[in-house]
Design goal:
Distance between the termini: 48 Å
Oligomer: single chain
Largest sheet: 8 strands, mixed
Radius of gyration: 31 Å
Length: 773
């Protein structure tokens, strides 16, 4: 099952040794015949694959891998961070799954007992107390017969405390100090010995060659790699981390009356990771060639190399460069963490200067940080991070937020005080046992993992320090730029000379009263297969009355029809969330006005905001479509998918031609996938109509040729708002926001706003700071 996530590269697979080489070289397994090693190893990998499939399918673990382009045929030492025991076999398993590469791994000697010891041995694990350990590693890397996976931290870093006053540190009961340099020494030795051996071969120095062959167990120059050894940093990030009792820990308690505290802690933390919906992200960083670390630096070293010989220089270089190499790959490992919502939330709590913070401001600072990190490419981000922050800031209930708040409250770090968070700052300063911190203070562990991303930390610190007014203006401008750049990027990607309109048609627009004073903000949401320009006339009419109008673009629209076919209704709603975030930063009073499908999105957003929203207008909302073929879109989409899976090109119905009322705005091709998503949106909106609590205006053309006007009765029956007005417009067209009925529509909307008596001028300082929008 894992294979669906990855693409193996046949050309980059390192050459595997013959079975006789495995037995001959591997002194860790002298008791097994060569054929047994290969056969048993393959069976063990197969069993491991079966277990991982079960974990993915039934328990929800999500294993994601990227950076595969960084894997190569060079002899490679993989160096990875270490947080759970499962990592001992996860990375070697992935390398075998992806590349049929049976890499060895170094594992703590305590694991080599009983069944577990036999199991990980067959996966290629070697004990840290193996007498021939270092020679085995160096020999494997010199010859390229096996790659290695080493965890340079030397222990599981349960507190994820990697940084102390700007320097890398390992802080555990067994060791406190800078990261151990053992992995760097082995890598530098392997590469320097490889170079020395090849030099001896060129010079006919048989004595030196024989010494190397005896020590590292190879038979001649043909077995020594001609490719440079590389060190490849690997980062493993888990999200979310929520330690608690689980099936594994409960079973252990049932079988054993008393469990050692350390074992119980590991079962609660690591069992939860494996048995819940946890993302395990593995990133292979760019490899670090060792040539730069072994080259003589400066005039004096080169002179000594000439006088004392290259061998002396290489030995000295290994000693002097081991710390530099260690810092280089540890920096890459920690910088490659995939930043999640938890990282920003916990890191933000730790950075706050005050104990009390307005939730809305705290959430806005997190989103502003995400937008800036993404814009400047500061770090790798979880694929749902931006979406989560947008949803949180737009007022939508979000499981990710609820989860980390619940965990923070449980740990005594946070108190939820309605509109405010109260932070117990002293909790972050408490000294917690290394083996207890994952259970008792997970928020600090998560914040510690975020700490090495120094640039991101400083951006978050700055955004948290802003006043409310400045924060609102900064986020509003950042979201405006973000949405404009998203559109321009999509336009370039999907541009079709025959099907795309001009760039201006699909661009979001702002309409601000000339005197700069606004009564409220109005978010305009266009219809299906349309573009922001569809709502411009209505916006201009409202702007004349003192409203700041923002014509947003729905994802997949304004570019080319194929773009729409690749989006889902949730993507459309996310566009509304993002646009609402911007308008709510600029205005305390915001109205939503949507046409056709935009009307559905406006009502759906209103259902999430409740009475917080000033009002919502839905014009010809597409609850019921007159073309009954739309109901078949789901079946057609499934049929197309089945043919695609069978690699059958004939028989597909991917799209139909469209003859819109406004061909200069609307797409002229309607994809089946898009129609199916529209159907799903209709169902979702209908289900949540009772949650709409704000004042509502429905404008419906009596003889709409596209939308069945009887859908209004559905709204009247199910909507939760007690202040709902329904206007039946005498019209026989659908796009009444652009045709001869547009002035009448605008009049109804203006009247609706006026009757709500919600004229609210913009806060002066916001008006000044945000004058650039």
């Amino acid at each position: 099952m894992l294979s669906r996530y990855f693409q193996s590269n046949e050309a980059s697979r390192p050459k595997e040794p013959e079975p006789r080489d495995v037995g001959k070289r591997c002194r860790c397994f002298p008791f097994e015949k060569p054929r047994d090693v290969g056969m048993r190893s393959r069976l063990t990998w197969k069993a491991t694959g079966t277990v991982m499939d079960v974990l993915e399918r039934t328990l929800g673990i999500r294993l994601r891998v990227d950076g595969l382009e960084n894997l190569s045929a060079h002899p490679t030492l993989y160096v990875a961070n270490h947080f759970t025991r499962a990592e001992t076999f996860i990375i070697p398993y992935l390398l075998y799954k992806l590349r049929e590469e049976s890499a060895r791994t170094l594992a703590h000697h305590s694991l080599f007992t009983g069944f577990l010891g036999r199991y990980i041995s067959r996966l290629g694990a070697v004990s840290t107390k193996e007498l021939e350990r270092d020679n085995l590693i160096v020999g494997d890397l010199m010859t390229g017969r096996k790659n290695w996976v080493i965890y340079p931290e030397g222990t599981m870093v349960k507190n994820k405390k990697f940084l102390d006053h700007g320097s890398f540190i390992i802080d555990s009961p067994e060791y406190r100090g800078p990261p151990r340099t053992g992995a760097a020494v082995l890598a530098l030795q392997a590469e320097s010995h490889r170079l020395r051996y090849l030099r001896a071969y060129e010079e006919g120095d048989g004595e030196t060659m024989h010494a190397y062959e005896e020590k590292y167990h190879f038979s001649g120059p043909d077995e020594v790699s001609r490719q440079e050894l590389v060190v490849l940093p690997v980062n493993i990030t888990y999200y979310p981390i929520r330690p608690q009792q689980n099936l594994v820990s409960q079973l252990a308690r049932t079988l054993f009356s008393e469990l050692p505290e350390r074992l119980e802690e590991e079962l609660q933390v690591e069992g939860r990771i494996l048995l819940s919906k946890t993302d395990m992200k593995i990133h292979f960083c760019a490899p670090l060639p060792l040539k730069a670390f072994l080259a003589p630096r400066g005039f004096v070293p080169r002179l000594l190399a000439h006088i004392q010989g290259e061998s002396h220089l290489l030995d000295q270089t290994v000693r002097s460069q081991r710390e530099q190499l260690t810092r280089a790959f540890m920096k890459e490992i920690y910088r490659a963490v995939e930043v999640s919502f938890d990282h920003l939330f916990c890191g933000g709590l730790q950075l706050l200067r005050e104990n009390r913070v307005l939730k809305r401001d705290f959430h806005r600072a997190l989103l502003l940080t995400v937008v800036e990190m993404r814009r400047d490419g500061m770090c790798r981000m979880h694929p749902k991070l931006y979406k989560t922050c947008v949803k949180v800031c737009s007022g939508k209930n979000c499981k990710a937020l609820e989860s980390i708040v619940t965990e923070s409250v449980r740990e005594g770090v946070l108190e939820d005080q309605g509109d405010f968070y109260w932070i117990e700052r002293g909790r972050f300063e408490e000294t917690i046992s290394f083996h207890d911190i994952r259970l008792r203070l997970t928020t600090k562990v998560i914040a510690n993992e975020f700490e090495p991303l120094v640039e991101c930390v400083e951006v978050l610190r700055r955004n948290l320090s802003y006043t409310e007014g400045r924060l609102r203006c900064q986020l509003a401008e950042a979201m405006r730029v973000e949405q404009q750049e998203q559109y321009e990027s999509a336009y370039r990607e999907y541009f079709n000379a025959d099907l795309s309109k001009s760039l201006q048609v699909g661009a979001p627009f702002d309409l601000v009263p000339q005197d700069g004073k606004t009564r409220a903000g109005v978010l305009l949401i266009h219809g299906y297969m349309a573009a922001p320009k569809e709502m411009r006339y209505l916006g201009e009419s409202l702007c004349e009355q003192g409203y700041h109008c923002y014509g947003m673009r729905i994802e997949g629209h304004g570019t080319a029809p194929r773009n729409l076919s690749e989006t889902r209704w949730k993507d459309w709603l996310l566009s509304v969330h993002a646009a609402y975030v911007r308008m709510s930063c600029l205005h305390d009073t915001v109205y939503l006005v949507g046409f056709s499908m935009g009307g559905l999105l406006a009502l759906l957003k209103a259902s999430q905001l409740g009475e917080q929203l000033a009002g919502v207008v839905a014009i010809n909302p597409a609850f019921r479509l007159k073309d009954h073929r739309a109901g078949l879109a789901g079946a057609a989409d499934i049929w197309n998918g089945m043919l695609q899976n069978l690699h059958i090109g004939m028989g597909k119905l991917e799209y139909v031609e469209n003859l819109p009322a406004n061909p200069e705005i609307n797409y002229t091709r309607n994809y089946v996938k898009g129609v199916r998503q529209l159907g799903l949106l209709i169902s979702q909106c209908e289900r949540l109509l009772p949650e709409v609590k704000c004042p509502c205006l429905i404008v419906q053309a009596r003889h709409d040729p596209v939308v069945d006007a009887t859908g209004v009765e559905l709204i009247r029956e199910k909507i939760g708002s007690e202040a709902t007005s329904i206007v039946s417009l005498k019209a026989d067209s659908h796009v009444i926001v652009t045709d001869e009925h547009k002035d009448e529509v605008a009049l109804y909307v203006r009247h609706f706003f006026s009757t709500l008596e919600l004229a609210s001028p913009l806060v002066p300082e916001l008006e000044f700071h945000c004058s650039g929008y």
